[in-house]
Amino acid sequence: MNLSAIVGHFAGLQLTEWLGYFAAALVFATFSMKTMVPLRMVAIASNVVFIAYGFLHPAYPVMVLHLALLPLNIWRLNQMLSLVRQTEASTDGDLDMNWIRPFTTTREMIPGEILFRKGDPANEIIFIMSGSLRIPELGIAVPPGEVVGELGMLSPDKVRTQSAVCVDGGQLLVITYDQVRQLFFQNPKFGYYFMQLSARRLFENMKRMQKEIETLRAGRSSGAEFHPAEP
User: Fold this and answer.
1) Residues 60, 44: contact at Cβ < 8 Å?
2) pLDDT in tens, 57-69
């Protein structure tokens, strides 16, 4: 087929055929998208155009396929937009992770259960929905609403730096480091949220260490000044 024939073919296209080419171009465009929100928006547009094409052509298998894909893409877009809204709220200091539930799995814990031990491989972040944990190495309790395990993702050896034991039975939300990485690269604002979360934990650990050092210094100082009475 020569150039003139190709030009003649496109010049003679009907509206329905142009819809088909336009829908195909939209599908091709989704492969160039680097983030999920624009990708889902373009995918939804391609679904709508393909539905119109399938109805007018008619090409019912194509129409049925995109009728099924359209609500799926809308649902996924709504998830990502919710993620954007929540990460924007995180810039005001709200570190609540309830919004991340669609990307997590639910796990039940029972009293006395050891979730992980110091030195175990670290591969997931745990959000405590109900119940409580105890960090035996630090002697502190972790109440509902708190997060554990986020620093393991940043550590070079990817191992747990502390243990976690269930005190009161309850429910956990678990998200793997691989899922966190996907969200991180799909949405830069989620990266900011994760940075805030990790920074907060690091500062908490620094303050705890500083208090322990001050207590140790105070103990040594009082010991040096203590002189037992002569018999």
Assistant:
1) no
2) 888 899 999 999 9
d(CA 96, CA 85): 13
Q: Parallel, antiparallel, or unpaired for β 147-148 and 124-128?
A: antiparallel
Please confirm whether the linkage preceding 58 is cis (ω < 30° from 0). yes
Strand segments, DSSP code E, in the chain are 105-109, 114-116, 124-128, 132-135, 140-142, 147-148, 164-168, 170-176
**What is the signed CA dihedral for 90, 95, 99, 102, rounded to 10 degrees?**
120
What phi, psi does 68 have (nearest 5°)? -75, -35
Give the whole-angstrom CA distance, residue 42 versus residue 23. 10
Phi–psi pair at 13, nearest 5 degrees: -70, 145
Q: Is the pTM of this model over 0.70?
A: no
Per-residue pLDDT of 70-107, as tens digits, reads 999 999 888 888 777 766 665 554 445 556 677 788 99
